[in-house]
Amino acid sequence: MQRVKHAWLTLSIAVPHVLWMVILIEAVPQTQLFVWLSVFLTFTLYVLFAVPRLGWLLDVRYRHGQTTLTHHPVVMSIATVLLLFWSTEQFDVMSGIEMLYLYGFLMVTLWLPALRKGIAPRIFQGVSVVVAVSLLILSFSMKAFDWWLSDREILMCLGVSTMLVALRTVAQYLGGDRSVPSRVLLVVLAPIMTILTLGYVDVLMAEQLVFWSMFTALVAGLYVQIGIRVPALTEDVSACVHGMLAALSFVWFDDATLTFAISAQVAVMALQAQYGIFRPAYWAIKVAMSLLVVRLTLLPFIPDWQPQDGGDWSWVLLSYLPSLALLAYARVVLRNTQADIANWFEGAFLHVFLVALFTQTNYWLTGSYGYATEIDFTSSIVYANQALVMALVYGYRSQFADKLSLVYRGYGYLLLLAFVAFEVLLNTMDSPLIHDHVLASEWPIFNMLTLGWLLPASVLFGAYFCRLSALQISPRIYAGSGLALVGIWLGMSIRHFWQPSSMTIFNSTSMAELFSYSVAGLVVGGVLTWAGVTRQALHVQRVGLVLLACVAVKVFLWDVSSLDGFWRAISFLGLGASLIGLGWLFQKLNKSVSEKPST
After folding, report:
1. Where are the domains of the chain?
2. Cα–Cα 20 to 30 A to 577, which of 109, 311, 492, 583?
3. Which value, to the nearest 10 degrees, does the dihedral of the CA atoms of residues 260, 265, 267, 272 take?
């Protein structure tokens, strides 16, 4: 085959040979199948997988003349592995030697291209991934289908194979292959195999968790040595080691202990970055910090993540305070040397602090931490205020951020959408005008109406007066939204004051309540008109005049229709006097404002 000039001959031989192997696997008796496999399948691996690219002597410098279409090692390795798995289906029982052959065949597939010099041509790099996936499938299948090895024996075979995969990737890189795929395979292939197996053992082989945890620690120690001896790989290898340590934390810790473990690991990574001791890559620090932030964000909504040995009032302290302290410490450590990472820590601290503060506030107001399945009227009010305040805080913080500006702004938009959604809910399906959420016996002003409508209106007015436009939202929108919330609050507060039993719309409305709406409209409209004139704010002035017009129409069409005789005349006189007074005041103010520039 070394002298073959036509590359297509390899393909014309390989396809019929694989089909012939499939037929023989089905035809050979089970008693002879293993001997037949150990000879012919191994010969097939050598002749069809290695020789076309490396020659009979497995020389990496062999001039083969093949193309990726006529012979690709990855395709051939997949074909031989499928033949191997196909043959295992024919056995009812396999001895220990036969099981070891399966692992040995995969190891030969991995190492055969690099047998002479420890390094293989780059086209063989994908074979390492094929072998790694095949090892996991073989090992997990043995457990799932209750095949012929015990759990400990399966893990021992997989552990040895994982080490050989790691050594293969190390030999490829140290042999002179500095390509990106070679670097990536060295850093992630064996650790990913270890972590996936750790998760599988935690779920289905709990009694072997200690054994595989010790093996994971061994692999982590091996990679520490690799990172120390190969400085070019230190950052990526350190990130890989931290990934394995994080996986161990997830399987061994829970509740607040896991949260603290992740926080401590983030702090350790920050110290490593500060002092240059086995420094992890910056992306790994950001990933670990993001993992911590996501966990702390979801913590109030997942009871299984909360500490079970703490009281209802104390688990926020147990879960958040250690993380906040470690994030603040890492921020201080990196502030002067690693400004980019320090900004990430600052953003994480800000977010976790707000989540902890509002989670505890929700508990004080509702008596629970507001799980997603327990959203009621009070929780909606708390969530709406939290979302609004956090949106404005992130919008303000985005003004001083560099790379995180888009992150802050995007999160601010999401929180504003959440605020709008909760307000829509509070004013429609969950409105106190439909359900008895606010009892008539409660004190005026000092009730949930103030928290649900007047408080967010005050926050929006604050954003307007501070001219907060970091989220690229006009301050006028803040003012208009705040004014709308104040109007809704005023209307519902008036109804709450006059209703003796329930403030829902299903009860009748008294004359005193109707006149109260008119008086409130006149006062608010007059104040807005006065403010618009004095501040030369035409849009505010127009809103005030429109409101006054609406009050006048209401009085003529609604209020007066329910009065007779003397009280109707008094009502018209009072309305006329009010409008005349407002008109005189408007002209007076307008004249004084127009004279100011000349003076």
Report:
1. 254-374, 376-508, 509-599
2. 492
3. 170
